[in-house]
Write a structure and sequence with these properties.
14 strands, alpha+beta, six-stranded mixed β-sheet, four-stranded antiparallel β-sheet, Aminopeptidase, 31% helix, 573 residues
Length: 573
């Protein structure tokens, strides 16, 4: 790390000395770091003491935190809360702003936010920035995006019963008998036969047998800012861009950050999390240099910060997912500062009750370490587990899921290296590790005689997870017959049905059903009668407006708690 994190405990005292007795004069400056693909300015707010401190340091020279929100266009809550945090820091924390600077980029992807808001079209759950691609190779771009078939102003899903084989749609789904609004994969072993395909709402506009493959940035095409940064860039996944930093937004952000060496920590408001679930330590990329989680030396610091965060927010569960190619991964591994990600808001069932102890949190993703965790970890390493596998074994189910998703995004040779490492373990240790993986939802990795599963079968399993249940078939692949994989498509296509059921319960019981569009028949020009419905775009990422004030209070309190923990490069008398 560029900063020695052990200095953090001393920085608070140093800050008090530098502040002096004078009343702080908090200044707010608004600049632009660059422009979006459509030319919209990307604003940055600078909060801090207007005058130079006793060492002559200006706002852009004092230790700083950077807050970035809005990278994923469908994560509107991050934008709103970032703006609220700025207001609260100015009003209530002038003392901290006398010795530190806070940079806030409230909306790093204004074009993506426009998709969710329904600017110039129906509302779409897409975090991407516009980028025209000729995905089907027909010499045209943006000619076959999603379509609002039922006229409700939303792009949701459509489910098709027994689709004609000429469309190449995989009809491997059935309605969940416990919750018919959700779809799941059929279970042939129980006598079920799949009859339904699910894909993004739309028609075959260009007559090539594919649906929604050339949309320019809605649910097909475009660049996902969660995957366009250089660190562990997932080259072959849909939405990653043709090369790292292809998007104007990502390039502008990196250039601006690199020009501000006073930034000592980064907070990212997006669907990722590393505060409720602290990343595993000691895992690296293929060359053994770039960390995939956190450095071993940073583990204790991250846990300390995470404990403070969970005490303030009472979060006990968060979404999981790969951070490969994310801004947070780049800020930590390449810019080399502590970087913390939070979705800001989670379902009410993922929040501890008032007064409930953090280590007794109700969510299964509660990542507070037991008092003897360090000793248990040392014991596992002594048994023969590599440190990163020991961390995996001791992690919560959510942490293990997150690690497995990171592995899925690794190059094939790196996955094989890790598999070889697992196979080299003694049988008893290997069995224990596999059992932990299966508890987190992994399919059995070995057959009864200990041989690995067929590689092609494993690859197919991963592809099934990544693609919508509309199938790959003719025109398959990203943006093919089933359209691009999105959060909206998971809603009805056999994703995590347990989690989707919780979202439905939340919608029904606390939001008066506002989060789900009931399935209704619609005549489709190519597929005949289809049913359109699914989760409302953005519903599972953004709360009702009245919650935003509380969230801004919490995040401002976290920033205020983190600022004194920052290392300060000036500690000499």
């Amino acid at each position: 790390m560029r900063n020695t994190l052990q200095l953090a405990a001393l920085s608070g005292a140093a800050a008090c000395v530098l502040a002096g007795p004078a009343q702080a004069q908090v200044s707010t400056r608004r600049d632009s770091i660059g422009a979006s693909a459509s030319g919209q300015p990307i604003a940055v707010l600078t909060l801090g003491e207007a005058r130079a401190d006793r060492l002559g340091r200006t706002m852009d020279q004092r230790p700083a935190i950077l807050i970035v929100a809005g990278l994923q266009g469908h994560h509107r809550v991050g934008v709103d809360v970032a703006e609220g945090v700025a207001q609260r820091l100015i009003a209530g924390h002038a003392d901290l702003l006398a010795t530190h600077t806070v940079y806030i980029i409230p909306n790093a992807n204004p074009d993506g936010a426009a998709w969710l808001a329904g600017v110039d079209g129906p509302r779409v759950e897409s975090g991407r920035v516009p980028a025209s691609r000729d995905a089907d190779g027909d010499g045209r771009v943006d000619e076959d995006g999603p379509d609002d078939l039922n006229g409700d102003g939303l792009i949701t899903q459509m489910r098709v019963r027994l689709p004609d084989a000429r469309w190449g749609l995989s009809a491997n789904l059935v309605p969940d008998p416990d919750e018919p609004r959700l779809m799941r994969e059929a279970k042939p072993i129980e006598g079920e036969s799949g009859q339904w395909a699910v894909l993004t709402e739309g028609i075959d506009n260009d007559g090539d047998g594919r649906f929604n493959e050339d949309g320019g940035g809605a649910l097909s095409g475009g660049i996902d800012l969660g995957m366009n940064f250089p660190t562990h860039w997932p080259e072959h996944q849909d939405g990653t861009g043709r090369y790292p930093l292809e998007s104007a937004e990502a390039l502008a952000l990196v250039r601006w950050v690199q020009a501000h060496s006073n930034i000592q920590a980064v907070i990212v408001y997006d669907p990722h999390d590393n505060l409720v679930n602290v990343p595993a330590a000691g895992q690296y990329g293929p060359e053994g240099r770039v960390p995939r989680g956190v450095e071993e030396a940073d583990r204790e610091y991250y846990q300390h910060v995470a404990d403070a965060f969970k005490e303030i927010t009472r979060m006990s569960g968060t979404p999981t997912g790969s951070t490969a190619g994310s801004f947070a991964a780049w800020a930590y591994a390449d810019f080399a500062v502590p970087t913390f990600s939070t979705p800001v808001w989670v379902r009410p069932d993922q929040i501890r009750a008032e007064g409930e102890e953090a280590d007794q949190g109700g969510g299964e993703a509660d990542a507070v370490a037991a008092p003897d965790r360090a000793a248990e970890r040392d014991a596992l390493i002594a048994e023969g587990f590599p440190p990163h596998l020991a961390d995996f074994l001791l992690g919560t189910i959510e942490q293990r899921r997150a690690t497995m998703q990171q592995v899925e995004s690794m190059p094939a040779e790196e996955q094989q290296r890790m598999m070889n490492e697992v196979m080299a373990l003694p049988p008893a240790l290997r069995e224990r590790l596999m059992r932990a993986a299966q508890e987190a939802g992994a399919p059995p990795a070995f057959d009864d005689d200990g041989h690995g599963r067929d590689h092609d079968a494993g690859a197919q399993d991963l592809e099934t997870i990544r693609q919508p249940a509309g199938g790959r078939g003719r025109g398959g692949g990203p943006g093919g017959a089933g359209g691009a994989r999105t959060g909206a498509s998971r809603a009805a296509s056999g994703g995590d049905s347990g989690d989707d059921r919780k979202w439905l319960e939340y919608s029904d019981q606390q939001r008066a059903g506002a989060g789900f569009v009931e399935w209704t028949p619609v005549e489709h020009p190519q597929l005949g009668t289809v049913e359109v419905g699914g989760f409302v775009p953005g519903f599972r990422f953004n709360p009702s407006p009245e919650v935003t004030e509380r969230l801004a209070d919490e995040q401002a309190a976290f920033v205020a708690a983190l600022l004194p923990m920052l290392p300060d490069a000036v500690l000499d008398p």
